[in-house]
Amino acid sequence: MDANRWGQIKQIYDRALDLSREERETFLADACAGDDDLRREIESLLAAHEDAGTFLQSPAVEFAAREVVAGEVTSPAPQLIGRELANYRIVSLLSRIFL
Amino acid sequence: MENTPAADIFETTRLLKAWSEGDETALERLVPLVDAEMRRLARHYLRQERPGHILQTTALVNEAWVRLINWPDVSWQNRAHFISLAAQLMRRVLVDEARRRQAQKYGADAIHVSLANAEGIAHGKSADLVALDDALNELATFDERQSKIVEMRFFGGLSLEETAETLKISARTVQREWSMAQAWLYRELSRGV
Question: Which residues, at least 6 apart from B67, have a Cβ–Cβ distance to it below 8 Å?
Fold first, then answer.
């Protein structure tokens, strides 16, 4: 994307956001005046805005923290795998029992 | 919870300063320090978590920086810059972490296969931070400020007001830029599914 083009998109998108659905139609037809690509781009961003919902609303740290802790619980204890105990060699983790 | 060793605090502060002055090798040494602190805090916070209570992520991120940076050593003029660096650093730590998890889950070859899953990110299930990181890099090529705002809010855990203060722009501008970046990223990541 070209920065100038993006600037143009931003200006029109910003104004369109404040309008009702019906007003948008007229406004976009006028503001994009024959530039179909521009209009499509703005319409698709407006649609994405409607769909985005809570996307990115919780900070990354939230699920990263959960994944880190979950990963530590479910991954096999690496220090045991490959070790030999008596006549046995530990090759993998079969299951984990929580007591 | 045990305290962060004082030596680490001075080391991270020193490294952050070095990095802010353009020493890229400092970043490589910062990442494991921050990563270790985040893991320690994540475990601590999740242990305290009770059903029905949401994880206090802002507290978690704030605590990480209180514990990692020797703030009296940082001048007021540099504070905004430091906060922005901290968000950048957190992004690096969390994306590296996500990349490692993907590699473990699908094997190293699959890193590039698993592109986007906006729905997953939206619901906090599948954290495709790697795809988001790529999209943010692309956004930065034509709108650096929007990319920065997402970095500060989503990775740095900063509020609208804190972001506005750090970037010295109005909260309203942050809100509008954030909302447009969110729409663009959502569309880009949905395309990859």
Answer: B3, B4, B9, B37, B41
Burial of A51 (0-12, 13-18, 19+ CB in 10 A): middle
Q: Which among B45, B138, B142 has CB closest to A3?
A: B142
Q: What is the ipTM of this complex?
A: 0.73
Q: Which residues are A84's β-sheet partners? A: A89
The answer to whether the Cβ–Cβ distance between A6 and B143 falls below 8 Å is: yes
Do you know the residue count of chain B?
193
Which among B42, B57, B61 is the nearest to A68, CB-wise? B42
- Put simply, the answer to whether A62 touches B155 (Cβ < 8 Å) is no
**pLDDT tens, N- to C-terminus, chain B (193 residues):** 555 666 677 788 888 888 888 888 988 888 888 888 877 777 777 776 666 555 566 667 767 777 777 767 766 566 777 788 888 888 888 888 888 877 776 654 444 433 344 555 544 444 488 899 999 999 999 999 999 999 999 988 888 998 999 899 999 999 999 999 999 999 999 875 5
Side-chain half-sphere CA neighbours of B139 within 13 A:
26
Interacting residues of A93 by C-beta distance below 8 A, sequence separation 6+ = A76, A77, A81
* Distance from C-alpha of B31 to C-alpha of B26, rounded to nearest angstrom: 9
Residue to substitute from B61, B88, B142, interface A, most A β-carbons within 10 A:
B142
